[in-house]
Amino acid sequence: MKKQFLECGKIVTTHGVRGEVRVQPWCDAPEFLLEFDTLYLEKGQQAIAVQRARVHKNIVILQLEGVGTVEEAVKLRGKVLYVNRSDVPMDDGEYFVQDLIGCTVTDVDTGADYGKIYDVRPTGANDVYYLRDDSGTERLVPAIPDVVLERDIDGGVIRIRPLEGLFDD
Q1: Which terminus of the chain faces fewer neighbouring Cβ atoms within 10 Å, N or C?
Q2: What pLDDT, on the 0 to 100 scale, is given for residue 1?
Q3: What is the reported pTM?
Q4: pLDDT tens digit sequence for 45-77
Q5: SS3 labels along 54-112
Q6: Per-residue model confidence as pLDDT tens digits over 151-160
Q7: Which long-range contacts (CB under 8 A, 24 or more apart) does 106-110 make?
Q8: CB neighbours of 166 closer than 8 A, spacing ≥ 6?
């Protein structure tokens, strides 16, 4: 099931004396966070307006509404920020990495169940899906068109055709 509110970064410390906070972005590019007028705290339960946002050395510096002093900003240290899925324009076929977590990976030809995705990591050339099955066996799957044939995000299933030798023990 897709989450309505998606983790997008963590407030790591304060910036200056006027209540700005430094955010470690958890998105493809820090500039992504500059697009939002509203972010959320407490897993989406608390909306907070963004007054100013800028990128500085791969960190996002935010001035949040109601946070005007360093003392108020300190209280936010360690908090995770969320975006509302409805606020993000997505084209057909696009998805969030968080949508893949928990998806079952099956063989498109045999129907074999290889486990569920528990992590997705970029390698530079492509992403790699980290799988774990019910017995605890872990597998790595390169997210390339030759291997990943179908992504049914709404159904929670990824169908693959493993390359020869990929899962040989």
Answers
A1: C
A2: 60
A3: 0.79
A4: 999 999 999 999 999 999 999 999 999 999 999
A5: EEECCEEEEEECCCCCHHHHHCCCCCEEEEEHHHCCCCCCCCCHHHHCCCEEEECCCCC
A6: 998 899 999 9
A7: 106/157, 106/158, 106/159, 106/160, 107/159, 107/160, 107/161, 107/162, 108/149, 108/150, 108/159, 108/160, 108/161, 109/161
A8: 141, 147
